[in-house]
Predict the 3D structure of the following.
Amino acid sequence: MKQLAVSLPVSIFKEGQSFVAYTPALDLSTFGVSIEEARKNFTEATELFFEETERMGTTEEALLSLGWEKQGAGMYPPLEVGHILEQVSVPIR
């Protein structure tokens, strides 16, 4: 079976007592009780994502819908250019 090696941007943040790992490149998130567990769960979820889309024959379609680009025989995720904190004012009740 062919393998696709890609580098995915992953943000890890704390939410309550859990750590969440999220990548916008696949719109996929997982969590764990530690950073290490969140990363391990993220790897497993990513593998499942690709296994399932490959099984259904929809990998290319799914990646293109997530903003990936096809270049030659490869697929490349959207390039992350930075993280910012944006302060906004929102109405509340």
User: Anything to note?
Assistant: The mean pLDDT is 93. The CA atoms of residues 19 and 35 lie 6 Å apart.
